Amino acid sequence: MSDQRESVRSNAKYLQNVRPIDPDEICEYVEGNPHPAVVRQHLRELAPELELVERDDGTFVPVEDDPVAPNRGPVERFPAAYEQRLEDLLVERYGVDWHEDATGELLRSTIRRFKRRYLERRPVEYDDDVAAGYAIYHLPGYYAAVQYALDDLAERGLLGRSLRVLDIGAGVGGPALGLCDYLPDDALLDYHAVEPSAAADVLEELLEETGPNVHPTIHPTTVEAFDPAEVGSDGGAAFDPTAPDDGFDLVLACNVLSELEDPAAVLRSALETLAPDGTLLAMAPADKNTSVRLRELERELEDERLWTPAEMGFDETDSDGEVEGAEAAGADDAAARRGRVTVYGPTVRLWPGERPTDRGWTFDVRPDLAVPSFQRKLDEATPADDAEHAPGEFVNVDVQFSTSLLRLDGKRRIDLALETSDWAKMAEMDRHVPNRIDLAAAKLSRSLSDADRDGGDHGGRSNPLFKISDGSESIDHYAVVTSESSLNRPLLEADYGEVCSFERILSLWNDDEEAYNLVVDEETIVDRIG
């Protein structure tokens, strides 16, 4: 069989830059004339190594070099195919009426229990019932959230069509499925999940609904015990985790860091497996504890030297010559950061040599999803005499999340270097109170005002309020819109993570919140600059 596989490989290599590879043709040149279906299976297994994608007509062609384009529009719902597959799994495990009677009560009590343990910051043990409950409650939101995070890479052309991905603590597969659906049909995904719990069974089931160019491998072990050298050892694409010029194009660490004993060590090890132009995407729920902890980890790892530029394949002069001198002079350009952990986004570093030390609680909020049938069924089947239940308790379609994107090639999503001659610095805000100043900062929240949270308009009982940052602050800063005008409306229209300039913004101190309020009124001019 190995000789047959090698024969298929050699024929595919010969033809891949000549014409589409047709299993019906190759079988004639392989010893023993195997059936085309056998050749097709070999080609599918060899696809990650040879960087081939399978077309609808059954032929194989090289994956295109063009990067993946960003999504257009919001994620509206959890796809019907995954929804049905999950319901089929629930029926198989618990019966046709899985959402009712004793089995429905088991799943509802399981969801309540792991939600309570999460809020108490206690570990959750993932058995079959917890995995099923977790899929019902969390799968749709995580599916959507990762796609919004990937937009930050795709909009800068940094998400390739041929991806080797490591998913740490993959769980039941929300981020994995979101990634699969984000990529176009002609993309190639060599996907490796590390998941030791019963959640891996749900993940495996759902991955069967993905396309032919998704090549999944599930490693049933803890991330601490996982050996990256296993990748490629099963006949897949060769991989040397000790070589910085090889590695994963994308590492996912989504909604798992709060469950690890030493998340910083895990992230550091994961960063060492990145390709030179790869990204580590860490994600956490939007609640205060996990969101702030994510930002603490980001800051702990930032600027650590993992490789020299020369080891990563960059020019030698970037490591010990001009770059060293540039770093000593306080410059913070991309070349000087090569081989160091760099925060790509969504948080910013707009001042050379400055780093934020504020609380760091920042998260994105996107439109709610349509309610999946499995959530609606479980919620509506709750007995009327259940004193704990409020309608919608088991419906979770909010899409709120915190992310951190880390790279080793020095790139940032927004790479500005401000000067104090032009702009006020948040690190020095105490000397600007109570004056009008010019400021540049990223918008790092949706509106936090009571009116907006309650669905009111800008004339409600609270003014639009946004967390903003320039990457130098040690105290939280908020932009408060007290008088909306055409000149300051760009702040309301700006996307999460986008940098705006503020002319004549009023700096005030808020004793109650122990934070700076920067007032945007009729005198303030706001422009979107990045």
Automatic annotation (TrEMBL):
InterPro entries xref list: DUF8157_C, DUF8157_N, SAM-dependent_MTases_sf
Gene Ontology biological process: methylation
Annotated Basic and acidic residues bias: 449-460
Keyword Methyltransferase attributed: yes
Record keywords, A-Z: Methyltransferase, Transferase
Residue numbers spanned by region Disordered: 449-468
Domain (DUF8157): residue spans on this chain: 5-56, 427-529
Pfam family, one: DUF8157
An MF annotation (GO) of this entry: methyltransferase activity
Protein name as catalogued: Class I SAM-dependent methyltransferase
Native organism: Haloterrigena gelatinilytica
